[in-house]
Design a protein that fits this description.
It is a single chain. This protein has 256 residues and is of the alpha+beta class. 17% of the residues lie in helices and 28% in strands. The protein has five helices and twelve strands. Strands 2, 3, 4, 5, 6, 7, 8 and 9 form an eight-stranded mixed sheet that branches. It has a four-stranded antiparallel sheet with strand order 1-10-11-12. Strand 2 and strand 3 form a beta hairpin. It is globular.
Length: 256
Amino acid sequence: MAAQNDRVHRGGPQQIPRPAVASQGRPAPWTDAADPRHGLRPDRVRSAFGGRVGSESPVRQLGAAPSAVLVALYPNDDELRVLLTRRSWDLRTHRGEVSFPGGRADEGEHPHDAALREACEEIGLDPGTVELVGEMDHLTTVTRRAYIVPVVGLLSGAPQLTASPGEVDAILDIGLAELMHPEAFREERWGTPPDDRPVYFFDLVGDTVWGATASMLRHLLIRLLELPEGSPVDYDPARGLGPWLEPPNWIGDDVV
């Protein structure tokens, strides 16, 4: 019998609003790491993020509203996995996209509380099972009307979860080692200098993670692996754009 040569298909049905001007970016930061798995342990998460308060996005001082997402990690079979969601295809914006559970913080609500509340509402994650560790740096949205506070949390093991109908199409748990697969990560440059910016992608089996979520995943891996972090714009691409009253015409409504 002839050997089968079925190639695993990477990427999903997400609609990427790629502009007319786009080019290939840099390789994955961990490409030349000697042993990329050494940082993928709970103790390294605590070391990298324990008690950490993320640096503020510049738009906070301009009155932008805070959102929060929960970067929930848990050990399984000697590897760390991260919880993500595929947003419902019926939502008005970012439909079908892969993201962390999260959303807009209520008036006066601490971002940590907002991240836990949203995770409970969207995927049924019990807040009492989450060990809040710290924050990643805050991320500017391209519209500059909001910023994201990524809150890092640890779980002791795989949780029992239920997707919220109408909000979440599916709950995903992805091994961090899978994110570093040679065929998973890519970077593109969108737009024309000086307004071009890096846009990151993780092509998984059946889904594409891109934009703000991919930027946070990329930086999560960089910090866990103790790799050079680069410039603030490398993590927070919208920081290098504007300020403007209206975004450039190559930025669509579905770009974070």
